[in-house]
Amino acid sequence: MNVRWMKGSAVLLVAIALAGCGNAEAETDVPGAEETVRIINVEVTEITTGAFTDRIDLTGAVLANRDVQISAEESGVIREILKEKGSRVVAGEALAKIDDTILRAQVDQARAQAELASQTWQRRQRLWEESQVGSEIAYLEAKFAAEQTAANLRVLEERLARTTVRAPFDGVLESRTIEVGSMVSPGMVVARVVDLDPVKILAGVPERYAADVKVGARAVVTFDVFPGELFTAAIRYVGATVDAQNRTFPIEVVLPNPRGIVKPEMVSNLAVTRHQLDSAVVVPQDALVRVEAGYAVFVVVERDGATVAEVRPIVLGASQRDLVVVESGVQPGDRLIVVGQKTVADGDRVNVVGSR
Question: How much is the pTM?
Fold first, then answer.
């Protein structure tokens, strides 16, 4: 009985071994066996055309339209302060008064001398020209004395006028460095007046944009301290030279400031229009894939009854923030892959799960 069991077991082992060999051949040779296919979920957006503004983004600093330190033109003691700092002033308005007692007396003296010299000249002139009375020398001396005393009077009158410190233009009295009783001398700074409407914004433009920035071009100005407010200004000045240190050339923008809210030394953001494209193919920069020859994108197409990803080499144009102009490689109506483009390859099966 044991012999029969052993023989049966041996037969069974041989059968199992043969059966194993037969199954391995079936996996490779059985007709109709399906190959595993990878399908990747993606999101797409349809490419369209639209207007695109190519702008140069710059950072600028605000300057007053005019900012002047006023100096005393005569020496003396300050007798009166006529405007306090922070006050608005108009051109020619008196700000302070220097003691003019001595100069006023000198003006009165010079006026009397000028009047005497003038009358003497008039009489000498009549006598000499009409009756030939007197000498020509006396005639000429009287003439030149009248002219000299008149000129001396004008000098003293001008000096007297300069004892009043005046605003040179409309603006704000930003500061003053004098008080009543202060002693001043010619050239000493006594006040500062600034003109804040309009203001100037100075910025540096990279030299590669030298051919694109012209006087009169419009710029959009924003300030971080005024969120949501946009200002439009014109470029008034474009520098003729490039700074050797930072390779930029200066531009100056004039910005109306009727409310006075924009202050000197504020930091501003400028967007200068470089080109305006009316019909451009614009895609998100995130959709771009870096390749050896440059950049490419993936679009969804139907091929042999299947939805697949197709790679498209592209030529890029101008960019602005997170958008870029595509000059060639895709067309309006193409379905651009915007989610999943980093994981697909050309010809991969895809499943569109969303559209933007």
Answer: 0.64
